[in-house]
Design goal:
- It is a single chain.
- The protein has 360 residues and is of the alpha+beta class.
- The chain is built from 13 helices and ten strands.
- Strands 1, 2, 3, 4, 5, 6 and 7 form a seven-stranded antiparallel beta sheet that branches. The protein has a three-stranded mixed beta sheet with strand order 8-9-10.
- The relative contact order is 0.09.
């Protein structure tokens, strides 16, 4: 209830319709004043009489009370109409704000899904930034183990090309292809030694993250001296317009190695003990070193057995030993290919795009 009243006073339901918001604001706050008009009737009547140099004490009591009664009727009519207008504005606001809050709830659930899926735990924070004029301003933030994070609305911001979110704005894509998503992902890692020195941290942000504007650097929270890993990806909507930038940061080092490896090589080993393989032979993969060592030791003996075998049964038994070791090697690590790994991120980004463009 309090949130609805607060959003009503801010007239958030008019969103970007500035002229309508201004005119409705004047009407709303004037109505708010007029609703208390009956309480001031006596004071207003006496003030009017004094203004026209009419002495209230010399005026006939009946005439004065009749005049006051007429003014009271007029004041109550205005107050009732004002109250009706206020209720209309409140329910209009509530109907629009339900849509606004509903969108936010959907987006928070999508971000939560990503944090669970990619195991963004520990000190991870996922923040969604949206474009406002020539800046990115924070729209929602979820911190692992905390939930909805408190943030000063409009404080932390980025410009295009500055900071990891700003770079993600610069490379944002429509998200229709895996390669587009991978190319749009921006990753930054800060050595812990750098974070211990404030001047070195500022220099690192400038040289590596492109934050040249001091107001952007100062808008960041004090956590910037603790965060070691950053990742951000931007999504474009209709007419190649930026919809949002999803930014994830962590105080743990190299938290987003999976994405970094995938982005640079299109294949690599995941921290979740998975091996990413490309579009080639599904049999491709990485054998664990200890199993490969055993396999190499077994191969010469097995080959000799096959060559010296007196019949098919002996050859088949020797071949089975090699096949078994190869099968064991492949079953040690589960494999997935790049599109499967990146698909949850791609799907969530596209859902966010749909939510922002939907009319609720």
């Amino acid at each position: 209830m309090f949130t609805s009243i607060l959003n009503l006073l801010r007239l958030k339901h008019y969103k970007k319709a500035r002229l309508l918001k201004t005119l409705s604001g004047l009407q709303f706050y004037l109505t708010l004043l007029l609703i208390i008009l009956p309480c001031l009737s006596d004071l207003i009547v006496r003030s009017l009489l004094n203004f026209y140099s009419i002495d209230v004490n010399l005026l006939d009591a009946t005439v004065f009370h009749s005049f006051l009664m007429l003014f009271n009727i007029f004041a109550w009519l205005i107050a009732i109409l004002s109250a009706i207008n206020l209720f209309k504005e409140f329910y209009l606001s509530k109907s629009n704000i339900v849509g606004f809050e509903f969108k936010k709830e959907l987006i928070k659930q999508l971000i939560t899904f990503l944090m669970d899926h990619y195991e963004w735990r520990g000190t991870c924070r996922a923040s969604l930034f949206i474009p406002y004029k020539n800046k990115l301003k924070i729209y929602e933030r979820i911190s692992y183990g905390i939930g909805d994070s408190d943030f000063e609305e409009g404080k932390a911001f980025f410009r295009k090309g500055q900071g990891i979110p700003g770079k993600a704005w610069d490379t944002a894509s429509s998200g229709t292809k895996v390669d587009e998503i991978l190319n749009s992902i921006q990753i930054g890692n800060i050595p812990v030694a750098i974070l211990k020195d404030e001047k070195a941290t500022r220099r690192f942000f400038k040289e590596n993250f492109g934050i040249t504007d001091n107001d952007i650097y100062e808008s960041l929270s004090s956590d910037k001296s603790k965060i070691q890993s950053y990742m951000a990806v931007g999504i474009l909507g209709r007419y190649q317009k930026l919809i949002a930038v999803l930014s994830i940061d962590s105080q743990d080092p190299e938290k987003f190695t999976d994405f970094e490896t995938l982005k640079s090589k299109r294949d690599g080993k995941l921290t979740q003990k998975l091996t990413i393989v490309g579009e080639g032979d599904p049999g491709q993969g990485i054998f664990p070193r200890d199993v490969m060592t055993q396999l190499c030791k077994l191969l010469p003996d097995s080959r000799k057995k096959i060559e010296e075998a007196s019949g098919w049964d002996e050859q088949k038994a020797a071949a089975k030993e090699v096949a078994f070791m190869a099968l064991a090697a492949r079953s040690i690590e589960t494999r997935t290919h790049a599109p499967s790994f990146i698909y949850p991120l791609q799907w969530v980004l596209n859902q966010i795009k749909e939510i922002f463009t939907m009319d609720i």
